């Protein structure tokens, strides 16, 4: 074991010496994009390395370290690799992916992979720093709930934010901010424990928590921090922001400005996912740059770099901190054996995270906190009677209706939703039937619940084309500005209406009807093995939106949420 350790250390030092040799010709630039708070530490270490003579294979290495918000780099990487991330907009036209990316959290790497970037496989990805995610409260507010002596849990916070006189909690958009996402994951986990997972009680608790956070959400961290009370006046404290999931570094930086009311950092149990600053060498860079990146990573894991991190209010990857670190009151430290420990994130970084939990949290948040206008169209052809083996024998129709009913609970009253069913010849020669018109949920929720409960399969076939065209015209007819106007259509088959419109004619009509100033998104969810993905995609390529196909109908609920969450922002 000792011999192996010596060999590894000697190999690392030999590699460092090779790159630092003074005799080199030519020059190559390694581009490194980092989260803003760690950029000064990485830049200083890289500059020192370069001044010491960084080179590889006879070529000098220059390192360009830029500060970049993780969401902006994620958008650029997603665009390059064909991924779609809930709540993340399009990359700017000038966005360029770096050779090395140090976002604030491995959750970005997980989201890119699970969002469709199948070829996205960064080299390395190990952590170079750490900042625990905390709940920040004004100190007078924190004192009232037992800080710093009482150990508090996420369930305690859930109780506070959903009480009749709630604590005013806020969040940075969790689809765009890793600390916000970490807090959201912990809070929704606490809500799920309010009852069996998926039970009405658990969903009610989760939706209540999401709505409470959404009331004071912000797309910018600095904007959220500015909402904390700026005066010791009791009225200012009562009216200011009362709690927000932020990083430990955020709290230290905020308090360093000597505000009138300092923030307390609450390290709630169970510990949320920490910000772990992975060193991700992006795929496709040339070998010389990859070699340089490997040694730069070694430089960023030295004891000297730990002190550079401390100057930026960041910890080393193991949770310890360097000289000069000003820990918040009550901060746990592995360096102090008698204090509570910060459980390690895990050696694997992204490998320790649950892609399913992250995807569910981001999509549920997007659905529960946005507003829209939607026509839900459900297939009631005879094939929807087929039992689903993975759903205890429930029929395809029952599984689909259950997913739609559960999704309905996530939409707030600002949504406008209507309900149709379709097959063939449902009303005379007409393939579709309107059960509930498109109206605000504030007056329509009960009618929709009754409409969903009444749905039964028919003995007809699948009149997909006629129904799609009629639904498109209906949603376009009363198009509403400021919202995403959409159709969500569930089907388990391909078009089987010989008396209806042809595929060619449907696409021609949709092309004529399409209006870029008043877009109507069409989302089609195909269920089972009889659907034709190419048929569905031919429609959504014209209208915008997307086609989602699952061979396992029991997965329809999560696909429904993902489909809604991935819709583009509403027109302004």
From TrEMBL:
Give me the ranges of the annotated region Disordered: 320-352
The record, for InterPro entries, names: VWF_A (IPR002035), vWFA_dom_sf (IPR036465)
Give every VWFA domain span. 373-564
**Known SUPFAM superfamilies for this protein?**
vWA-like
Q: What is this protein called?
A: von Willebrand factor type A domain-containing protein
Native species of this protein? Answer: Micromonospora tulbaghiae
């Amino acid at each position: 074991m000792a011999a192996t350790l010596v060999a590894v250390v000697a190999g690392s030092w030999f590699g460092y010496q090779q790159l630092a040799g003074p005799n080199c010709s030519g020059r190559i630039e390694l581009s490194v994009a980092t989260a803003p708070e760690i950029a000064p530490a990485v830049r200083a270490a890289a500059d020192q390395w370069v001044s010491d003579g960084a080179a590889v294979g006879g070529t000098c290495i220059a390192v360009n370290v830029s500060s970049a918000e993780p969401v902006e780099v994620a958008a650029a990487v997603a665009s390059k690799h064909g991924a779609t991330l809930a709540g993340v907009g399009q990359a700017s036209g000038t966005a360029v992916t770096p050779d090395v990316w140090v976002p604030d959290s491995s959750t970005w790497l997980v989201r890119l992979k699970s969002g469709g970037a199948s070829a996205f496989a960064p080299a390395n990805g190990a952590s170079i720093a750490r900042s625990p995610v905390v709940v920040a409260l004004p100190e007078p507010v924190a004192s009232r709930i037992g800080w710093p002596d009482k150990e508090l849990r996420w369930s305690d916070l859930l109780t506070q934010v959903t009480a009749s006189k709630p604590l005013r909690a806020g969040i940075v958009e969790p689809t765009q901010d890793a600390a916000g996402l970490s807090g959201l994951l912990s809070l929704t986990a606490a809500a799920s424990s309010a009852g069996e997972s998926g039970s009405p009680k658990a969903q009610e608790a989760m939706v209540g928590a999401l709505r409470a956070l959404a009331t004071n959400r912000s797309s910018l961290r600095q904007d959220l921090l500015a909402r904390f009370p700026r005066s010791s006046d009791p009225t200012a404290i009562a009216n200011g922001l009362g709690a927000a999931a932020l990083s430990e570094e955020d709290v230290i930086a905020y308090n360093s400005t000597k505000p009138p009311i300092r923030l307390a950092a609450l390290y709630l149990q169970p510990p949320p996912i920490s910000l772990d600053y992975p060193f991700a060498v992006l795929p496709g860079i040339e070998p010389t740059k990859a070699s340089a990146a490997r040694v730069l990573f070694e430089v960023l894991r030295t004891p000297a770099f730990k002190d550079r991190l401390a100057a930026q209010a960041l910890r080393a990857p193991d949770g310890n901190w360097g000289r000069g670190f000003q820990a918040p009151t009550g901060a746990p430290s592995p360096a102090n054996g008698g204090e509570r420990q910060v459980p390690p994130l895990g050696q694997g970084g992204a490998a320790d995270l649950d892609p399913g939990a992250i995807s569910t949290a981001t999509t549920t948040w997007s659905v529960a906190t946005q507003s829209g206008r939607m026509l839900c169209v459900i297939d009631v052809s005879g094939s929807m009677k087929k039992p689903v083996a993975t759903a205890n024998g429930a029929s395809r129709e029952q599984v689909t209706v259950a997913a739609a009913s559960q999704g309905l609970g996530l939409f707030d009253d600002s949504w406008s939703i209507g309900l149709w069913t379709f097959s063939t010849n449902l009303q005379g020669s007409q393939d579709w039937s309107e059960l509930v018109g498109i109206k605000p949920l504030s007056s329509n929720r009960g009618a929709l619940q009754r409409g969903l409960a009444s749905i039964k399969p028919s003995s007809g076939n699948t009149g997909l084309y006629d129904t799609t065209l009629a639904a498109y015209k209906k949603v376009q007819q009363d198009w509403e500005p400021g919202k995403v106007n959409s159709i969500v259509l569930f089907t388990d088959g391909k078009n089987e209406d010989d008396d209806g419109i042809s595929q060619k004619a449907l696409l021609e009509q949709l092309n004529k009807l399409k209006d870029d100033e008043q877009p109507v998104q069409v989302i089609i969810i195909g269920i089972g093995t009889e659907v034709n993905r190419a048929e569905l995609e031919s429609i959504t390529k014209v209208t915008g939106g997307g086609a989602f196909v699952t061979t396992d109908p029991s997965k329809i609920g999560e696909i429904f949420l993902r489909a809604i969450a991935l819709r583009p922002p509403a027109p302004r």
